[in-house]
Specification:
heterodimer, A: about 90 residues, mainly alpha, two-stranded antiparallel ribbon, B: about 600 residues, Sodium/glucose cotransporter, 3-stranded antiparallel beta sheet, 22 helices, 5 strands
């Protein structure tokens, strides 16, 4: 591997880590602050017939997790192409 | 046709399907046996992962857990789904790029150490065996309940089916049967849920039904109504948090990390063709899991409401005992009688009035009030929460074929998970121990035979343990997740994300994570789960900072991370070729 290839790989890795930290921050906020720590106060707000904190804990968090994985996969595929490390 | 005949037909048809698939998808190479030749489409793999992951516990027990714990059961919902986010971003793509067959193999290669590989094999086997006992029990129970054969006959039938398709087809056979099993399972779970949601709220999708208004004309949201019904009878509010927030946080986190660290799930991502597929496949797996996991809260809440309303029928009165018309015991419905026979539902007429008073007599304030009303204690002495999903279609008066379908669904859930676990165990033995450690020069053909023999052996051991379940079977589930979270996950993640973690650091980290988690569980549950050897009673007052043994995995994982990093700092860095290996797995393809 050339030095040039090396630094390019390092840059690709850095971009990947930045992206996944962003995704994990969202993962964390939904699962912990919204669904657990603030569930009490959020329950006084309703979403349809759902108390909001309860909805995050039993519905919203799961939808968010699904969305996050697809978002990550989509952005990584773009990143793979940009750095020319994509598989055929 | 009566229920029994229909059940035999439905279950028989699904079993024929599984066997047909097995014959079609025979494995002829070790690659096909361990990782299905790495040729599974990502969506298909996602579906197989869903079946692999969702066990008898998800199918049968989870909705019951939600029904009786309400909001507090959310830790399981989030824990068992949120782990896939960690898996998709922190492990799956890189392990797929590594491109070998097993999880211990990665740990052995990355940490250039047979010791590390063997420690990983031990964690894998303990975690997987623990899990498989529960599945075997689930198979026996489903058979004996619905087909009215005895437990052991049911278990042997289940073992024979798994033996046939897992030994013959390996991962390839297992994958295609799991796809079929997923379809059976999800159909069986959602159909009754849709029926019940329509009945209670006029809404087709249970996910929306749970947020909708009651169809009885009151316009009251169903969750509001449920809260009112349960609190009127002295139970805790359904949608509010009851326990400690710290413990719930750590339990959720432990289940997430544990999910991402369970080898039978990880290895599913070795079966797809590319790194890109591994990422997408994790998303698809979660979609298929989410269909069941977002339905479960509706099943739980609606079952609880149906149960309460059947037994303590509400009236127009707003205070006093006149608020309820308790069910008269001699007029109890058929499903009540059916479940009484199993002992999972029992009634005791404490005040001798021939009616069933169902309330929370553990709530002192309410119990006093009830006493003035002439109630002398809760008369629904046992309501086993595991009956919720199984009894739900009967409670809601659904047609017989739906009930038969639920039996087939429960069996599909147990069989698919058992097969995945058995494969993880047998490949750890034939590939990691036999080929990796003891007989490196074994031929591919001999290894394939060894894989089949160890699969057969694993099925026999699992069957034996299913027939003679050790008393601690239920408690060791915490152990399975604790092990996966505190030992396997940190070793894998650090192996990918931190180039400077060396052999000493990884082994020390795994041992510290494992050791602290084991000790914490043993102190409360008994040493090696031997009854009477616990040092402290397993109650919230005794737990350190209120952390339950099942929630300790996240703390054990933290100890593992810290130990591995500190030890690696003070010992020699890993050799250059290992650092290159890490660089290599981080990119899908070398550019240029």
């Amino acid at each position: 591997m050339s030095t040039n290839g090396n630094s390019k790989a390092a840059e690709y890795w850095k971009a990947n880590v930045r992206l996944l930290i962003g995704c994990l921050v969202v993962w964390f906020i939904v699962a912990y602050p919204l669904a657990i720590w603030l569930a009490g106060p959020l329950n006084s707000i309703s979403l349809g017939g759902y108390p909001l904190g309860f909805w995050f804990a039993q519905q919203g968090s799961i939808y968010t997790f699904v969305g996050l994985i697809f978002f990550y996969a989509w952005r990584m595929n773009k990143l793979d192409r940009k750095f020319d490390v994509h598989e055929n | 046709m009566d229920l029994q005949t229909i059940t035999y037909l439905v279950v028989g048809a699904t079993f024929t399907l599984y066997i047909g698939i097995a014959i079609w998808a025979r494995a002829t190479t070790t690659g096909e046996f361990y990782v299905a030749g790495k040729g599974i489409h990502p969506v298909a793999n996602g579906m197989a992962t869903g079946a692999d992951w969702m066990s008898a516990a998800s199918f049968i027990s989870m909705a019951g857990l939600i029904a009786f714990n309400g909001y507090d059961a959310s830790a399981y919902l989030m824990g068992w789904t949120g782990g896939y986010v960690l898996l998709a971003m922190l492990l799956a793509p890189y392990l797929r790029k590594f491109g070998k067959f097993t999880v211990p193999e990665f740990i052995g290669d990355r940490y250039y150490s047979q010791t590390a590989r063997i420690v990983a094999v031990i964690c894998l086997i303990v975690a997987s065996i623990t899990y498989v006992i529960g599945q075997m029990k689930g198979i026996g129970v489903a058979f004996s309940r619905f087909l009215e054969v005895d437990f052991s006959t049911g278990l042997f039938t289940g073992m024979a089916i798994v033996f046939f398709y897992a030994v013959l087809g390996g991962m390839k056979g297992i994958t295609y049967t799991q796809i079929a099993q997923y379809c059976v399972m999800i159909f069986a779970y959602t159909v009754p849920a849709i029926f019940i949601s329509l009945k209670l709220t006029d809404t087709v999708l249970p996910q929306f039904g749970l947020g909708a208004a009651m169809a009885d004309g009151s316009g009251q949201p169903i969750l509001d109504r449920l809260n009112q019904v349960v609190t009127d009878l002295g139970f805790a509010s359904y949608t509010d948090h009851k326990g400690s927030a710290l413990n719930m946080t750590l339990l959720t986190l432990s289940l997430m990390i544990g999910t991402a660290g369970l080898p039978h799930v990880i290895v599913r991502f070795f079966t797809v063709p590319t790194v890109r597929d591994a990422r997408a496949s994790a998303g698809w797996a979660l979609v298929f899991i989410a269909i069941l996991y977002t339905t479960a809260p509706a099943v739980g809440a609606m079952a609880r409401l149906n149960l309460m309303d059947t037994i303590m029928q509400p009236t127009a009165a707003t205070s006093g005992p006149e608020q309820f018309t308790p069910l008269t015991y001699s007029e109890r419905p058929q499903w009540f009688k059916n479940w009484e026979k199993t002992g999972l539902l029992t009634f005791e007429d404490k005040n001798g009035d021939g009616q069933i008073q169902y309330y929370n007599d553990g709530n002192e304030e309410f119990a006093q009030k009830a006493e003035q009303w002439g109630w002398e204690g809760n008369e629904m002495v046992t309501v086993d929460r595991d009956i919720m999903v199984l009894a739900n279609p009967e409670i809601a008066n659904l047609p017989n074929w739906v009930i038969a379908l639920v039996a087939a669904g429960g069996l599909a859930a147990a069989l698919s998970t058992a097969a995945g676990l058995l494969l993880a165990i047998s490949s750890a033995i034939s590939h990691d121990l036999l080929k990796g450690v003891f007989m490196p020069r074994i031929s591919e053909k001999a290894e394939l035979t060894a894989g089949r023999i160890s699969m057969g052996g694993a099925i026999l051991v699992a069957g034996y343990l299913g027939l003679n379940p050790p008393g601690f079977a239920a408690q060791v589930v915490a152990l399975a997740f604790g092990l996966a979270a505190a030992s396997i996950f940190p070793a894998l993640m650090l192996g990918i994300f931190n180039k400077s973690i060396n052999r000493q650091g990884a082994v020390a980290g795994m041992l510290v994570g494992l050791g602290t988690t084991l000790v914490y569980i043993f102190v409360y549950k008994g040493w090696f789960f031997i009854p009477g050897t616990a040092n402290l009673a397993d109650t919230a007052d005794n737990w350190v900072f209120g952390i339950s043994p099942g929630s300790f995995g996240a703390v054990g994982a933290l100890f593992n991370f810290v130990t591995a990093i500190v030890v690696s700092k003070v010992t020699a860095p890993p050799p250059v070729h290992i650092q290159e290996l890490v660089e290599d797995i981080r990119v899908p393809r070398v550019s240029g």
